[in-house]
């Protein structure tokens, strides 16, 4: 698996790397159990600071996409699609808030659709 970073992009390098890993996990190019390059090796390969790659790995770990195993390395977790997991978690938080507010499901769904439309997201 090869990663690239576009220095002219407005997206920070750590975020470019993080999204490439997420995309590769989602489409199966990085299967569960796959070992990622070491932070130092990937930083050298991409011409990035070690801390930049470390931040990407740290965020991937916080998102439940990878697991750092100390000196053994960093591995892709077998937890499924990280985007779907984050989406479900956000939906659960929203559903809890809707319940506390006493809002009916149709009204809550309409609010979500309005919010998505306001962000130019396809609904």
Q: Report, as a whole number of angstroms, the end-to-end distance.
A: 33 Å
Give the uncertain stretches in residue-range form.
none
- Specify Rg, calculated over alpha carbons: 18 Å
For the residues shown, what is the average pLDDT?
A: 89
Helix tally equals 5
Shape verdict:
elongated
Helix content: 55-70%
Structural class: mainly alpha
Sheet with the most strands, sense and barrel status: 3 strands, antiparallel
- Note the run of SSEs as H and E: HEHHEEHH
**How are strands sequenced across the largest beta sheet?**
1-3-2
The overall strand count is: 3
**Approximate strand percentage:** 5-15%
List keywords for this structure.
single chain; 123 residues; mainly alpha; 3-stranded antiparallel β-sheet; 5 helices; elongated
Brief summary of the model shown:
With 123 residues, this protein is mostly helical.
Description:
The structure is a single chain. This protein has helices spanning 13-26, 39-46, 50-62, 82-101, 105-118, and strands spanning 35-36, 66-68, 74-76. By secondary structure, the protein is mainly alpha-helical. The chain starts with 12 loop residues before the first helix and ends in a 5-residue tail after the last helix.
